[in-house]
Amino acid sequence: MIYDPFQQEAIDHINRGHSVIVSAPTGAGKTAIAEHVIDTSLDKNIGVIYTAPIKALSNQKFRDFQGKFKDNIGILTGDVSINASAPVLIMTTEIFRNKVLDEPASLDKYSWIIFDEIHYIDNPERGTVWEESLIFLPGHMNLLGLSATIPNIKQLAAWVESIHKKPIQVVVENKRPVPLHFFFQYQNEILDRAERLKKTRFAKPNRMNTLIDYIRQKEGLPCIYFVFGRRRAEMLAQELLSYNFLTGGEKTEITGLFNSLCERFDLSGEKTAQDLYPLVQRGIAYHHAGMLPTLKEVVERLFTSRLLKVIFTTETFALGINMPSRSVIFDELRKFYGHYVRNLKTRDFYQMAGRAGRRGMDKEGFVYCRVNPRRIDPEDVKHIIYGNPEQVKSQLNSSYATLLNLYEKHGDELIQIYPLSLHYYQSRRNEQKEAVRLIESKIKLLRETNCIADNALTDKGQFAKTVYGYELILSGLYAENVLEQLDEFALGVIAVASVFEPRKNQELPILSKNTRGLKRICDEFYDSIKAKERRYRIYPFSKQPFFNLSLATEAWLRGSEFDKVLRFTDTDEGEVVRYLRMGIQVLREISDAKVASYIMKDRIKETIRVMNRGIVNAEKQLREG
Q: What is the pTM of this model?
């Protein structure tokens, strides 16, 4: 195989036994370097772990690598365990972090760890997991980090070097093999230079048909249209119903493929699949997290078949999933970041824009930005596109479970681990002091809540250290013997309530008598926890359980069909599946606690059995897919 210069440079370092971090644009070909590590490791009979930031990407990598490496590939996520003793094991970064802390000996046979999307270390929600994985990386493992373009990649590598005392080679590629060309829909005209964007008091609406006609005329299909809202993705797709992007032969082919995939995934009678059918017949589809996972997979298969010409999708479609197109459209250049709407980060823009231009098929990729001067200043548009990507910054905020695992090994000395963090490496003195205060405050609270006593973990602490993210509420229920008394249905309800996040202004349905009692107990526990966290100035607060899905969960556990379950909630069907799967993962973590009784473990086993069926069974979907 002939490699690009940056790929060959990285491979040469790997062949000499060095750890490597690669920074390159989306679509540049970083996966080829990972495949080289896997190939050479299999030849030498040594193990490789490949981590990805989200389950969807882990699943896709499993399918891709299984096609090439056959039975040598396994996958381990909270949902799925297939061929878990394979020499090449794909997992989410959370699973790897948990293994590093809870069972490091299980990693002895693996000599390489591949961190895909390593720039995720500055994700506010998940970045801590990456940082902890790198801090506690076993000394015998070499590292391959694959990153989008970031300006401080050498700083990131220098930090890893400083804690592991071995060199990390840095390979940087700034050039895309398929260059991008930018266009702007502004005042309903298509402009080819950002300089032509001017401030105006009177904005003409940008019409969809104007843009689609232009792209079609320029032979810019297929295209991915990025939208920052699920309902808008569906609405815009429906707006194109008057178009037909397919020849007669293509229509016959895509209809046959869609029907066969729906049959394979038991979707033939699903209303959402039927709603999509008229669009698919015209070469159009949408894709977002509110859809059933199996229906999303059908859409992904249609797109990779090259029969879909326009897909409206939210940004997760850009994250590592190998689905390039000739063109990319941005519905707008502002999105919701956690607590407020702001302009797109340059790095996020290029993560999505990088899907334009198919290597080996296109000479260039085309990126179209729809610009509404009432929503964004033209100067901000230029900054997003032509500015430097943002630096990676630590988001370290270690969970109670992490601190309990560390306390078990290091006692009060665990505070000395903080100087190993990227946060310490990047931060000023006052930020470092605040980080230490936060860790110390969490340890004090763990003492006060009797997770730590006499300088050791109590049974409550042993329980809490296994349930990452939901430690205090669930360990409180365990210590007060509440969990022990719950039946199989209530265990499922509390697991789903622990993970559920209601939409803004989403109303709580009328609960069953048993669930009302369970909610009252949880609310009392949570109010007590929050008061303690406020007193210790611990932010953000622990997550509160929300019981909005309890009726739907109970119905599913009692064997109802999925379409009947949806009558008990106004939550999107894909979200219902996701929360049920997350609930199963919580139940497995509870069952893994050494202090959990065999009676509780048996009950949980039964809860998981009835919960993990049909559309919720992620492993079944992956095996059948």
A: 0.94
